[in-house]
Amino acid sequence: MTHGSQTPMARPAGQLHGLSAPERRKELVRVVEDQGYCTVAELSALFGVSEMTIRRDVGTLVDDGRLRSFHGGVSTLPQRDFIGSAYTTRAARQGDVKTRLAARALDLVESGSAVAFDAGTTVASLAQQIPDDMRLSVVTASLPVITSLAHKPGVDIAALGGLLHRDSLSFAGSTTVSAASTLHVETCFLAASGLNEKGAFCANDYDAVTKRALIDIADRVVLVADSSKFATSALAKICGWDAIGTIVIDDGLDDERHTALVDHGIEVITVAATQPSQATQTGAIE
């Protein structure tokens, strides 16, 4: 199967190819600063040079103290800064809101389609709500998603292998990204640890890379996130807003951010953060 054309990393067409070694290293640092964390494979594709060339560049920049190398990639920050909170802790945050967002996102899951579910706790809530009789092909690197869907007879699961990270309960690494690159889905359902004017961010380096790989193979990306993520900082950039087609978010989103998302061409679907009383329950979802 072929994969989609979207890309979560900013790649000015041809502008980063054919650079001299000093120019390439300067731009490499800029790109890594913007993304928070990049793999050698991503940088190789971005600059149009071999992975060996990127490794030499990285080695030089690490020796100069400008970059740090870990998990098969590079960052300007130390590895300890990418340690996110445990899955169970994140799953308990905004639990009711996540359930309501997931219920609305379920309306965007088309029976008979191929979708990708990332490793976020909100997307895991979506997986739990998939009806037992729905026919679906799911690509995922999330252990909770796999567990939730394993007993549903209509769901075929393409579980991406790799190293299991116990904190995030997700598989990650070069094996995971390589497996994803051979697949294609119609919709990727994405979660994020933080949101700001630059796009969506993740708390750890390895999940950010997997999320980018899932975005790359999708025709459409649906971000499912509660509005508190705009007040939360995360270091590893997943993608810019140009990669997002739809966002499902609660009505705590302020007007300024709502307008900014619409200006990016994003379909904004808002959900009531709290369950309305029986007497006033009229059109809670836009």
From TrEMBL:
Keywords: DNA-binding, Transcription, Transcription regulation. It holds the Pfam family DeoRC. It comes from the Bacteria. The keyword DNA-binding applies. SUPFAM superfamilies: NagB/RpiA/CoA transferase-like, Winged helix' DNA-binding domain. GO terms for molecular function: DNA binding; DNA-binding transcription factor activity. Residues 21-76 form the HTH deoR-type domain. Residues 1-20 are annotated as: Disordered. This is DeoR/GlpR transcriptional regulator. The lineage of its organism: Bacteria, Bacillati, Actinomycetota, Actinomycetes, Jiangellales.
